[in-house]
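Why do we care about 3D structure at all? Because function follows from shape, and shape follows, mostly, from sequence. That is the central idea of this module. The next example makes it concrete: a single protein chain, its amino acid sequence, and then its structure expressed as tokens.
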Amino acid sequence: MLDRMTKKLDIEERLIPHIGKVYKHLGILVKEQAKEHNADLSREQFILLKMLHNKDGVPQRELAFITENNKSSITRLINTMEKKNLVARIPSTGDGRVNHIFLTKKGRQVFTETLPLILDIFKEIEQGISEKEMQTAIYVLQKILKNIKNLSK
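And the structure:
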């Protein structure tokens, strides 16, 4: 019994569970704040808007790869965003099996209006964290990501 409790404490003292909690709560916070500002967006939808804002017309398969989503997840995300008129799926003229994803006028507007809100959220979240602490955290998270990718090969 004591051994089981010790193992539980060991897990709670590891970094990975805290990353999961931060990720989960960040998603909730972004969705709540966006909704309060009349932008019904999830974290994933905002990320996709940002990617398309930077490079519009990306093939759907490439978006799945870049966002590290499987094909069905990215399809569901794009379907939802199409229903909200944020993106448009346009078949390739060269290969009808390939769909390119474009921001709509509304999608571009929602991104432009939501970006300052997201930046404000980040600023509030990072309050009290020094530049050196930020650099260390980024470095550690990049190492963890590299280790995960090496393990999943």
